[in-house]
Amino acid sequence: MFILIQTTVASKKEARSLIDLLLEKKLIACAQISKIESIYMWRDEFYDEKEYRLSFKTTKQHLQEIQQLILGHHSYDLAEFTVFDIEHNDKYGKWVKAVTHSKD
């Protein structure tokens, strides 16, 4: 029922923009921003970049809409969109459901 969604973005401004969009639509209960270093291959080139990892807590009910919004507003050609099933204690889970108006 509860999920954690992660993506990465190039700037804090883009991070805040995505978070604000999802919070305003009540699709997520909260988000965390972490400054990270990503090392990867892209189009046969080696990259070592500073990025921001975004973690969103929500329910499965909102997964498809969140995915469409993130991928539709993301600046990357190939945006990370990773989903993890998670468990919360009852009190925290009730808060997530209440904030996101989730039925499940």
Brief rundown of the structure:
With 104 residues, the chain is of the alpha+beta class.
Give a description of the structure.
The protein is an alpha+beta fold and 104 residues long. Helix content is 33%, strand content 39%. The chain contains 3 helices and 4 strands; from the N terminus they run E-H-E-E-H-E-H. The protein has helices spanning 12-24, 63-73, 90-99; strands at 2-9, 30-42, 45-59, 82-86. The protein has a 4-stranded antiparallel β-sheet. It is elongated and about 45 Å long. It starts with a strand and ends in a 5-residue tail after the last helix. The mean pLDDT is 95.
Cross-sheet strand order for the largest sheet: 2-3-1-4
What's the main sheet like? 4 strands, antiparallel
What is the β-strand count? 4
Number of helices: 3
Can you give the mean pLDDT?
Answer: 95
What integer value in Å does the Rg equal? 14 Å
Order of helices and strands: EHEEHEH
Fraction of residues in helices?
25-40%
Name the shape in a single word: elongated
In terms of structural class, how would the helical and strand content be classed? alpha+beta
Low-confidence segments? none
Strand content: 35-45%
Distance between the termini: 7 Å
